[in-house]
């Protein structure tokens, strides 16, 4: 799907400014190339023939806003994506968390929840779930509804089971869900210690202190300046000696945190050293 | 098969490849002379979760520094970059990289089309693009887009490509500047 852009650079800036001032969703510091592609993609899919048409629709049809947000904020995700990351969590990080009397984890940008159930499974297997709480947040309320239900297509289970096994998971993965025709539902106990809530990393503040903050494949959509702002938000939300986990191609290398955080193994996990 | 002369000064060489391209890249990349003054960016379809690092694989075979991109890395002339597995790669105006974990395109992530278009948007007529062997139709539209934006386009000779589908799909929709075998591709790159 390639076409000459309907929304150009200046249109994009104007639109993002307006969406921010009218609706309070501020995408102005998102990575320009990505967001421009997403917005032009919406034009193709929803058949807006001009920028004016798209702009009119967004600014005058509030119900279209959620569609806009859904498309702009990519919500593709997987369970146990990058098995070696989960292996390191399981073997190096989670046991460390166990020394606390109460474990608090924040999963920011959790999308439809696949990551949340993966972490919850690790906590259960480590027998730490009873004293753990997971805050799972996202900007988009629609994906959180799916996350709360924990219902996913059965067609995905082959991949997720493989990922789970590759992360050194030793249980029978199918014990974690019940299957029903073409869907599976993850077991109730896996979401018992989870609080799902909207939280916008651009505009909302720190709301607690955690020993582990996981934010994967969200910062790639932000420019460096916004990334830096969010790193500071995470820093302010981490206890000393807490851990920050990012996506497999994301880094704190360009930020001040680089000075006070130490990388664990070669994974994208850093320990706060103060 | 030469349609016109290469444009002013190439600032980026983007190469897209799929099935059957790995071996061709092993021929091409090590033979690129080390003092190039443009960026080389490769989008190669490959298995996610393959443990060997692509940068190490090629890095051992050339004196040009080879990197696998991370988010917001700068594309520096004189280096070779690979798109990481399982992310789309876009280029920002300041020539840093933005990765994107969105839907596959042409059943592919990274999609060659996405990076070709993005390179063309930033580097315009200073883009040189090569489309190699492959079993699908990714890259064809992107290459055409580059051509329409006055970049220079090369399609690997379908007679030589291990799998000719990808080159042929491109040739179906537009006429590139060159259709070349890998030896001529090397010669052309080193003449820049
Ligand atoms: C590609 S998904 C990543 C999902 C999951 N973390 C993973 O790695 O598989 C990106 C998610 O970030 C969320 N997101 C985007 N902008 C956000 C913001 N400003 N605040 C919070 N979440 C945001 C999107 O709604 C989406 O669910």
TrEMBL record, chain A:
Record domain CheR-type methyltransferase: where: 9-252
PANTHER family hit by this protein: CHEMOTAXIS PROTEIN, CHEMOTAXIS PROTEIN METHYLTRANSFERASE
Name of the protein in question: Chemotaxis protein CheR
Organism: Pedobacter psychrophilus
Highest rank taxon of the organism: Bacteria
One GO MF term attached to the UniProt entry: S-adenosylmethionine-dependent methyltransferase activity
Pfam families per record: CheR, CheR_N
SMART domains reported in the protein's UniProt record: MeTrc
From TrEMBL, chain B:
GO biological process, one term: chemotaxis
Catalytic activity: [protein]-L-glutamate 5-O-methyl ester + H2O = L-glutamyl-[protein] + methanol + H(+)
UniProt keyword Hydrolase, yes or no: yes
Domain of life: Bacteria
Enzyme Commission no: 3.1.1.61
Protein name (Swiss-Prot/TrEMBL): protein-glutamate methylesterase
Domain (CheB-type methylesterase) ranges: 6-192
Listed InterPro entries: CheB_C, Sig_transdc_resp-reg_Me-estase
